[in-house]
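Example (one chain per record):
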Amino acid sequence: QGSELSGWAMGRWTYEGIDLNHNFADLNTALWDAEDNDLVPHEFPNHYIPIPEYYTLTNATVAPETRAVIDWMQRYPFVLSANLHGGELVVTYPFDMTRSYWKAQELTPTADDGVFRWLATVYATSNLAMASEDRRLCHYDDFARHGNIINGANWHTVPGSMNDFSYLHTNCFEITVELSCDKFPHASELPAEWENNRESLLLYMEQVHRGIKGVVRDGDTEQGIANAIISVDGINHDVRT
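Predicted structure:
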């Protein structure tokens, strides 16, 4: 609906009245229920979790934009992503949804918490606005005390976030960058915003080269094997080739 200044959240919803920030399928609850019942991973997967049937119905409250993004994510094997928000100066990382559904805030780390904390730190420490010693608080949360990063659910719970969906339904690790106190910066301020984030974006993209990479091949034919499941000891979240 655009950037009308009549309210802080105006413009957040689509014309159909859907908040895209909460519109992805909740895969967290299914995973956590299965974990509580000791079904993971032998009976319920710890990755590539299928989308619930109710979410795929034509009358489900799913925006066409959300369906298009999911189709995009399924067609291309992304492994690293960031989405950009405004209104704060902080980098958040999954999980975005609290495990205790009645809590508005709760530290809820993923099985890859160390990697996510690293990714968030890479962006935050190279962002000129976040790293500035003269930066002011946007509101009342002093994120600078925590290195300008926070677990999303430990800030405020967001069921149906794209970050959680990416992590649980694809190979993609995704963070959210709250890159400015100003939700609606003036056009004249955009060059400064670009300078604040240019190096952060480049350094963040370079992190795609971290870790182990290669090709899983058939021992006899030497052909690559698609959808081979790769498990790492001590990390209850697999990935696929």
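Caption: Residues 20-213 form a domain with the Aminopeptidase fold (CATH 3.40.630.10).
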